Amino acid sequence: MSDPKIIVALDYPGAVPALALAHRLSPELCRLKVGKELFTATGPALLEQLMKSGFEIFLDLKFHDIPNTTAQACKAAASLGVWMINVHALGGRKMLEAAASAVSSCSKPPKLIAVTLLTSMAEQDISEIGINMASEDMVLRLAKLTQEAGLDGVVCSAMETELLRKHCGNKFCLVTPGIRPAAASLDDQSRVMTPEAALRAGASYLVIGRPITKATDPLQALLEINQEIQGLA
Ligand code: C5P
Questions:
Q1: In order along the chain (233 residues), what is the average pLDDT of each group of 10 residues?
Q2: What is the rounded distance in angstroms from the CA atom of residue 134 to the CA atom of residue 233?
Q3: Ligand 1, atom nearest to 214 Cα
Q4: CA-CA distance, 114 to 130, in Å (whole number)?
Q5: Which CATH number fits the domain that encloses residue 64?
Q6: How many angstroms does the Cα of residue 179 sit away from the middle of ligand 1?
Q7: Ligand 1 atom closest to the CA of 119, numbered from 1
Q8: Looking at the 3D structure of the chain, how many domains does it have?
């Protein structure tokens, strides 16, 4: 598979378990997501090891700062040779444009996407910070702003994929967590979709953690998901 749709979330506290899991998987079958916990603990050295094994990496650090600082952080992240990086759309147009411009000037630009609203925020949390808008409208507004600012896509809940695909067109990259194969445990996720349903709804890539990382046989779990979505990807 040349463009695997599954991004496995390496939610680990350190390099040892992260590398152990990666070595059980294959870069032909998935990409890997390294987030704040793992990157803070291990730094770029772990990324180098993962990339040496052939994996493409989504470096999920969700930058959110003044435009210049965000742009420089994006440039530094891009220089690590990763496949995808991200920022918060709530940083606003100037920040998004600065990030897009910084990334596009890199020799090997990663995909740059934005988080719209954190899905951990309920309507009440959103109104508490002064946003008096339905979360779905806010997500769409931020996704459009992200697109206008020249970024490649957004992270979104599987439930929002259809709406965003309709309004942002076919080329906009939609990266979707909260995915659970039909037989898998929900863990702490609540509004989930199966891999097949999420891709049918318009997702470009699926972020999947525990259904693979906690499986007795992670490779087998990954193979089964890829089998389920074969033909859709
Ligand atoms: O184990 P699980 O499949 O629930 O992991 C999902 C991954 O996607 C985790 O790394 C989690 O932090 C991330 N994520 C999420 N929901 C979001 C954004 C990111 O679950 N809205």
A1: 90 98 98 98 98 98 98 98 98 98 96 94 91 94 98 95 97 96 86 94 97 97 95 77
A2: 31
A3: 1
A4: 21
A5: 3.20.20.70
A6: 9
A7: 21
A8: 1
